[in-house]
Amino acid sequence: xxxxxxxxxxxxxxxxxxxxxRLYDGSxxxxxxxxxxxxxxxxxxxxxxxxxxxxxxxxxRQLGRIDGTRVYSASGSQMxxxxxxxLYSASGSAMxxxxxxRLYDGSxxxxxxxxxxxxxxxxxxxxxxM
Length: 130
What we know:
Elements: H1 2-18, E1 22-25, E2 30-35, E3 38-41, E4 46-51, E5 54-57, E6 62-67, E7 70-73, E8 78-83, E9 86-89, E10 94-99, E11 102-105, E12 110-115, H2 119-129
Antiparallel strand pairs: 1-2, 1-12, 2-3, 3-4, 4-5, 5-6, 6-7, 7-8, 8-9, 9-10, 10-11, 11-12
């Protein structure tokens, strides 16, 4: 009886995190997941990783970096800006926003949902892997 209770308790504690690091498109299809600092597509192939403020593709090539509220490409040009929950392009046009676990495009249409991802993980996925 004790082994069953321990197994149930472990499953109850571990299952939410096992399914919590996923990103979905606007129609509810999984488009990716994050495992620690590694990013995967819907097929489970690693597509990138973050190391501090730097973002890399699956082969280790630097794609860019996020420095505070600014997003830069690998060449150093500004790709975008983050203002609270709003995401902007380098030219200043609204690209999207994050509202809780929901991701919206610049026109306000929901384009995705992030279950259990940290805000920075969602921003990295939005700018570099979507």
